[in-house]
Amino acid sequence: MAEFIDLVLLAMLALTALRVIFLKDLFAVVMLFGIYSFLSALIFVNLDAVDVAFTEASVGAGISTVLMLVTLALTGRTEKENKRSTVLPLLVVTVTGAALIYGTLDMPPFGDPNNPIHEHVAPRYIEESPKEVGLPNMVTSVLASYRGFDTLGETVVVFSAAIGVLALLGVRRREEIGGADVGFQAHHVLRVVAKILIPLILLFALYVQFHGDFGPGGGFQAGVIAAAAFILYALVFGLPQSFKVVGPKFLQFMSAFGVLLYASVGLYSMSKGGQFLDYNKLAVDPVAGQHYGIIIIELGVGITVFAVMLSIFYAFGSQVERSNNQ
């Protein structure tokens, strides 16, 4: 049954991708990309990779869709007619696809328990993680403890993305984008529903943040969900009003603070005589030290992801507001 579901979802992915190729309406393309991300999340759920599905649904089908819609407000809805020959791009795509398919021919059978990936480090993580880290969610143990240095690098990459977007676009001040903007003032039902949903979304973000030790979740997912709540607020009540709640300068500070908070855990463990990000040195009991370290670094990840996602939305949204007021 699981393989049948995978085949159905893969077929739906292929049909969605083919439809995107032939569409000229960019708004429809963005919607289909959101559906594509949602289908990908369903495939990850079917593969028991719930944490990855959580990230794909929140980032791919959620924030990315909103950012692309904001981009359409700057670029236009209809794709311009391409008068150049499509033979060369088609040839490049065909050759690349053939190379990728050829590279998969010598892969081990899907789901075989004797595959190298299941015989390398996985047994050690499964056997020793409950004793060394003590967390029920083994994914969190691997990402936040065993691969803590890699996760720090991923957090720095997210922070670098914000630097790149802000360097290119910047964030317009409230005075430049029109301080009188009030969002969907005439849509009373939408505003009332948003006031009800936003606190619930923030509460769910906190749950995902601090429940990642025991179930799917963590800093990356929680940061995106919290940013989605404030993006909803900005869309409904207007960007200038959102600036009053969470300002761009504060977000820039928070995006850097999250990375520094993560790195400070490693520096503190080194000051206690351990290695960088050696959580065992954070408490007398090594398992308790693992818990403290993971909670702190996940909080740093959540803060950075939240600030970066909202900053990128502010950068694009302020450009749209400014162009609309000119």
UniProtKB/TrEMBL annotation:
Pfam families: MbhD, MbhE, MnhB. It is a multi-pass membrane protein. Residues 115-170 form the MrpA C-terminal/MbhE domain. It is found in: Cell membrane. The chain crosses the membrane at residues 6-22, 29-47, 53-74, 86-105, 152-171, 192-210, 222-239, 251-271, 291-316. Keywords: Cell membrane, Membrane, Transmembrane, Transmembrane helix. The keyword Membrane applies. Residues 11-76 form the MrpA C-terminal/MbhD domain. It comes from the Bacteria. Residues 189-310 form the Na+/H+ antiporter MnhB subunit-related protein domain. Belongs to the CPA3 antiporters (TC 2.A.63) subunit B family. This is Cation:proton antiporter.
